[in-house]
Amino acid sequence: MYDLVIKNGILMDPQGEIEGPGDIAVQGRKIVAVGQLLCNEAKQIVDASGCYVTPGLIDFHCHIALGVTDFAMPADLVQIPHGVTSLVDAGSVGAANFETFYRNNVANSQMTVKSFLHVSTMGQLTHRFTENIDPQLFDRERIKMLCEQYPDQIIGLKLRQSKDIVGSFGLEPLRETVALADEIGLPISVHASDSPGEVQETLEHLRPGDIFCHMYHQKGKTILDENGRVLSEVWTARERGVLFDLGHGAFNFSGKVAVAAIKQGFLPDIISSDLSLLSLYKAPTHSFTYVLSELLNLGVSFREIIRRCTDIPGKLMGIAHNGFLRVGQIADIAVFKIVEQDIHYVDRYNNEYAGNQLIQTQMTIKNGSVLYRNETFL
Predict the structure, then answer these.
(1) Distance of alpha carbon 51 from alpha carbon 338, whole angstroms
(2) pLDDT tens digits for range 333-349
(3) CATH architecture, range 57-317
(4) 351-360: average pLDDT
(5) What are the phi and psi torsion angles at 96 (to 5°)?
(6) At residue 205, does pLDDT exceed 90?
(7) What is the chain's alpha carbon radius of gyration, rounded to the nearest angstrom?
(8) Which are the contacts of 366, defined by CB distance < 8 A and separation ≥ 6?
(9) Quick one: how far is CA 247 from the chain centroid?
(10) Residue 355 belongs to what H/E stretch?
């Protein structure tokens, strides 16, 4: 007898092998059957008629360092009810406080949690003051030691390089971060809104696998030229392997830039929320599924949305099972319903636009266990 059977759902495997009506059976931690199952005996049977059944979502950019920073959110409490089974802390902490963050947050989470390590020794302790990113103060030896000691946890280095953070240092922190990442053998994620110089100057320093974050921001130089076209240098960077992360957040998403880029086919490689206490349950971000709904209303297909928050970030995190609904894979599964609901969006730049589709989470399953079930989904 199976532990759980999800019947009559619309299965969506971003790898492309499965898409359409079907059932999934779970035994223990794993998926043990997929297809049109005739079994009516299981410890728990869920009728997912009219719902999409996808791999558990990955939020590749959020801030969860409770007990370390003043803007962290409680990861499990917030993310699991929105279909998230894995996430990445986007450089909340640095070399001095990483291990406190690990003990307090990573080790105790029901989700799979990975992290970027901030090159600033104290990371982002507070949203009220910017971190010190003087390259002379990078604790290079401790950063190297932590990356060696936690190879399955730290997946890259983080740098924020807005003008108000880097000041007179300009692009020097970026150059030094890339050089340090080269020594360690890791990618970097760069907070690129309102960066010094031209966008192409930042992109020139990024290597294949490095991440340009907050791609649809509207502060300072953007990925668009004066005519609203995606810069040729941006396309070139993507062609050579630079990745572009949505990183929505409270302050770094412009509907105007997003609409223009999406119409030209320039979609995020990674869709992430940048959720923290600054944006949680507040306009314009609210939650991860609210961000996904916004992209759906801006014209990105549901299939492409799911691929960009399961398959692609899963590979970057080194968790190969994400992006698959296949026999033998870990049963990290989410169930969603898309409902009609009028939504009026206003981003932080006062761009206004409308939508009428809302993605609602019905169930979240992690390692074969049901961690969330909407009370209307019985």
Answers:
(1) 7
(2) 999 999 999 999 999 99
(3) Alpha-Beta Barrel (3.20)
(4) 97
(5) -75, -30
(6) yes
(7) 20
(8) 56, 80, 85, 110, 111, 332
(9) 7
(10) strand 352-366
Residue listed under structure tokens 């050089």: 179
**Averaged pLDDT for residues 276-285:** 95
Outline where 54-132 has alpha helix (H): 75-79, 98-101
CATH of 4-54+326-338+359-373, one of 2.30.33.40, 2.30.40.10, 3.50.30.10, 1.10.540.10: 2.30.40.10
Q: Is a pLDDT exceeding 70 seen at residue 16?
A: no
pLDDT on residue 38? 76
Q: Summarize pLDDT for 94-113 with one digit per residue, the tens.
A: 999 999 999 999 999 999 99
Residue 243: helix, strand or coil by DSSP? strand
Average pLDDT over residues 77-105: 98
Phi and psi, residue 11, nearest 5°: -75, 135
Whether 353 and 345 have beta carbons less than 8 Å apart is answered as: yes
CB count, 10 Å around CB of 194? 20
Residue 32 CA to residue 353 CA, distance in Å, equals 43
Residue 377 structure tokens: 């989904």
Task: Establish whether domains 4-54+326-338+359-373 and 57-317 are of one fold.
Answer: no
Other C-beta atoms lying within 10 Å of the C-beta of residue 353:
16
Kindly list the domain boundaries of the chain, sorted by start residue.
Answer: 4-54+326-338+359-373, 57-317
C-alpha span between 18 and 306 (Å, rounded): 13
